[in-house]
Design a protein that fits this description.
With 431 residues, the chain is an all-alpha fold. The protein has one domain. The protein is 78% helix and 0% strand. The chain starts with a helix and ends in a 5-residue tail after the last helix.
Length: 431
């Protein structure tokens, strides 16, 4: 690798340290590299534009964001929360269980950990801290931990990005995320039950079983969202992008016409908010595509493959190294940036060592999502702390047991590939 590439990497690091968005940093570093190397900048930007405008799958991202924003501003979240309280709220630490289950369900609509934490998380945090039932730091910790599940269970914006840079099937990636998401959800509920017993957190007054049918009926329109997505994609009716459009349309109709909880003015504001979020993600993708061109010119993937071959790493050693690397990077960098830059570098080596690309995609996504809640700079830590107004240090203290048990889940997902791949194989995946 050349000194020009080293200068580009240094430019990214320095730009990130002074607070420049990572997308801007990668774009600036790419321009610097091209100037220093005397290469034609038009080629790099042609690659970037082809990646942005030539990828039909990218349209799924703004549509999933819009559907999630509609869920947050409408009454769909409230109805889902009532359903979850009736389902698991009766057990010790019940509101913590509600937090996890609501994330499992809401993840079938948003595909974003931040959307989950800001939307459903804000509501459940207020419930947990009301009347001093739970410390704000604990409510924030379990909200951050459960929000991680959102982008693992379909739909998933990070998996869309992985498919973009790896040319892997989105449908099979979505299916592969189901079992890992459920495993992490169960582990979080086990840890919550243990913490509730240790700290003597309260038992909620159970919702009478006779009310359960009516509560479920009120939540049915919201619960149908993931069904529409999954049936559309795996029934062969729609592509993932078309399913995202259908989900956004369904969320709009249900919120504005069926529940009448979102006015046209509020819907317009939601469109504007979604557009801003989409622009932010789009700029990150543009910067990553430009930098990936630089990485390709420098033949970084080949150099890394050669280095790992020299080290004689087998598949287990490689996966251990990738997990360690991604967990460290997840503490420092934005998750989507990691996906867009790291995956093209390490995927060829993973495949050459016999790692299935769909399995590798799930490993990468789970790692980067855990990184969102990992100290010292996990974004979810600051999101939930701003909601609870609890010190970040206290939130981290309560979060550590949840991070610990998620590491157990990560080990299972990494070293037992059949757990990840059995559902895609059931639907015809040949990996």
């Amino acid at each position: 690798m050349s000194w020009q590439f080293g200068a580009a990497v240094a430019a990214i690091v320095l730009s990130a340290l002074i607070g420049l968005p990572i997308g801007h940093a990668m774009l600036g570093a790419s321009v610097l590299y091209l100037l220093l190397a005397g290469l034609d900048m038009s080629i790099a930007f042609e690659q970037m534009l082809q990646g942005l405008y030539g990828s039909y799958v990218l349209l799924a991202i703004p549509l999933f964001i819009f559907a999630a924003d509609l869920m947050n501003v409408g009454s769909l979240s409230d109805r889902l929360l009532d359903f979850c309280r009736a389902l698991v709220g009766r057990f010790r630490g019940g509101l913590g269980h509600v937090n996890v289950v609501s994330s499992l369900i809401f993840s079938g609509m948003s595909g974003s950990a931040i959307a989950d934490a800001v939307g459903m998380g804000r509501i459940i945090i207020n419930l947990m801290t009301r009347d001093g039932k739970y410390p704000g730091s604990y409510a924030g910790a379990i909200t951050a931990a459960s929000a991680i599940i959102g982008p693992i269970i379909p739909p998933s914006i990070p998996m869309v990005l992985f498919a973009l840079v790896s040319d892997t099937s989105i449908g099979f990636l979505f299916l592969a995320g189901v079992a890992p998401g459920l495993i992490l959800g169960v582990l979080l509920m086990v840890m919550n039950a243990w913490q509730a017993r240790i700290h003597d957190y309260p038992v909620e007054e159970p919702v009478p079983l006779r009310q359960l049918p009516m509560i479920t009926l009120r939540a049915v329109p919201a619960l149908l969202m993931p069904v529409i997505l999954l049936v559309g994609i795996y029934g062969g009716v729609t592509t993932p992008t078309e399913a995202a459009a259908l989900a956004a349309l369904y969320a709009f109709v249900v919120s504005t016409v069926f529940y009448r909880s979102v006015s046209l003015r509020r819907a317009y504001e939601t469109v504007r908010s979604s557009a801003k979020s989409t622009a932010s993600v789009g700029f990150l993708i543009a910067g990553a595509l430009a930098f990936n061109y630089v990485v390709t010119v420098e033949q970084v993937p080949l150099a890394i493959r050669g280095a790992l071959s020299g080290a004689e790493l087998d598949m287990i050693g490689f996966l251990l190294m990738i997990n360690a690397l991604l967990l460290v990077l997840g503490c420092l960098l934005e998750a989507n940036a990691i996906l867009l830059v790291i995956v093209p570098i390490f995927l060829p080596t993973a495949v050459s060592l016999g790692v299935d690309p769909v399995h590798f995609g799930v490993i990468v996504v789970v790692n980067t999502m855990i990184g969102l809640a990992t100290p010292p700079y996990g974004l979810l830590l600051f999101v939930v702390s701003s909601i609870t107004r609890a010190p970040v240090k206290e939130t981290i203290r309560h979060l550590l047991p949840f991070l610990g048990i998620m590491m157990v889940g990560l080990a299972v997902i990494t070293f037992v590939p059949d757990v990840v791949l059995w559902l895609p194989r059931l639907y015809g995946y040949g990996g």
